[in-house]
């Protein structure tokens, strides 16, 4: 995992002693550079509800109907409401 000097920007590989002893420029503060994350393709996402922006959501109805899940709603002040008929319907099946 590489580290970058916060003063001069020089990059040092993981295990380099200069990370512990200090950069050639005299600075001893380094920034960790994370590995690149693999982004999922749009078709690989399995979520049912996706947050587009605060208060704006996209719902994948096809997946929601396939999973036969419990319906949960987000109410005021971060409270969740559970739709009891969907909960009871699921319980009867098992």
TrEMBL record:
<protein>
    <submittedName>
        <fullName>Zn-ribbon containing protein-like protein</fullName>
    </submittedName>
</protein>
<dbReference type="Pfam" id="PF09845">
    <property type="entry name" value="OapC"/>
</dbReference>
<dbReference type="InterPro" id="IPR018645">
    <property type="entry name" value="OapC-like"/>
</dbReference>
């Amino acid at each position: 995992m590489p580290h970058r000097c916060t003063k001069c920007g020089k990059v040092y590989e993981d295990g380099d002693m200069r990370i512990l002893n200090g950069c050639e420029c005299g600075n001893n503060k380094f920034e960790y550079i994370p590995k690149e994350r693999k982004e999922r393709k749009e078709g690989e996402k399995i979520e049912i509800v996706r947050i587009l922006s605060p208060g704006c959501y996209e719902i994948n109805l096809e997946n929601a109907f396939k999973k036969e899940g419990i319906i949960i709603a987000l109410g005021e002040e971060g409270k969740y409401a559970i739709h009891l008929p969907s909960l009871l319907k699921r319980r009867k099946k098992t």
